[in-house]
From TrEMBL, chains A, B:
Name of the molecule in the record: DNA-binding transcriptional MerR regulator
Assigned keywords, A-Z: DNA-binding, Repressor, Transcription, Transcription regulation
PANTHER family: MERR-FAMILY TRANSCRIPTIONAL REGULATOR (PTHR30204:SF69), REDOX-CYCLING DRUG-SENSING TRANSCRIPTIONAL ACTIVATOR SOXR (PTHR30204)
Source organism of this protein record: Nonomuraea roseoviolacea subsp. carminata
Superkingdom of this protein's organism: Bacteria
Length: 141, 141
DNA sequence: TTGCATCCGGTACCCGGGTACAGGCTTACC
DNA sequence: GGTAAGCCTGTACCCGGGTACCGGATGCAA
């Protein structure tokens, strides 16, 4: 808020606080290639440009969309590095397919669970109910 | 196949093969308390009763229902140990609630992803589309 | 100039469910 | 009695996403 004279660089603790992230996480993301290595003070302390905070919120948004850090790294790295930029739209569509598959799996599990409940199985090992669904829990896996 | 004279005990490799499980997994389950320590041959080799194979298929069935190994251990351990036996039906109902919650989360993610797709965002970092949903991806988390 | 907060690098640990490897011992069969 | 397959214990590693701790160096303000 006060001055930004000479260069508004932030130290790691400031970036972490503004982005709502642990300081260790910052270095972790650096190792994973999600954020580029920032400039350093003469003593070796990291000096981040303020955009890093924005970048971190973008990373967190992408994570919430179900992308892994590796995928986020790819998505962020487009433009730089010369590799063909991965299209976010295409990636999002592929991710929707993944999510749908996962939901389908969970629905099958849910189905099997309701069968267990309605059949009245009382115990895994000694189920006394007739037509116990336990041994035949296939889930088409 | 041949004789079962004196005791139809199985060695770890036989149990593993019949249950479709790795031998290491057997010992892992033993450490985790899912299967009790079997008898030993004079030389120290494990000698399993044949029921162990059935138990392993039960464990795998429970896993497919979404129970963690710790939960399976509890469910199996009922009857023995004197603790009040956890009711499988109740556990299954609770698990259904968990599954439903997870499905709801994934549906929200799916929703957000379709917004990204339909808004036409091309890039995480430099999205040129109007009313880009990326910064406001809340998912009510 | 001194004191304290912060940062540094490196390493180890956490969760869950296993898998793999090393170096030795047993068992089974011929 | 030889030989190979199988088993033993103990330990380390894998995935993903971080978190924690250590001893030492820096930064900043009074």
């Amino acid at each position: 808020m006060s001055g930004d004279a000479g260069g508004p660089y932030l130290r790691s603790g400031q970036v972490a606080e503004r982005a709502g992230v642990n300081v260790q996480t910052l270095r972790y993301y650096e190792r994973r290639g999600l954020i580029t290595e920032p400039a350093r003070s003469p003593g070796g302390h990291r000096a981040y440009p303020p955009e890093t905070v924005t970048l971190l919120t973008v990373i967190k948004a992408a994570q919430r969309l179900g992308f892994t850090l590796e995928e986020v790294a790819e998505l962020i790295g487009d433009g730089r590095g010369g590799r063909p930029a991965p299209d976010l739209r295409a990636r999002a569509q592929a991710k929707i397919a993944e999510v749908d598959a996962r939901i389908a799996e969970l629905s099958a599990v849910r189905q099997a669970l309701t069968q267990v409940v309605s059949a009245g199985c009382g115990s895994l090992t000694r189920c006394a109910c007739p037509d116990c669904p336990l041994p035949s829990t296939d889930l088409a896996e």
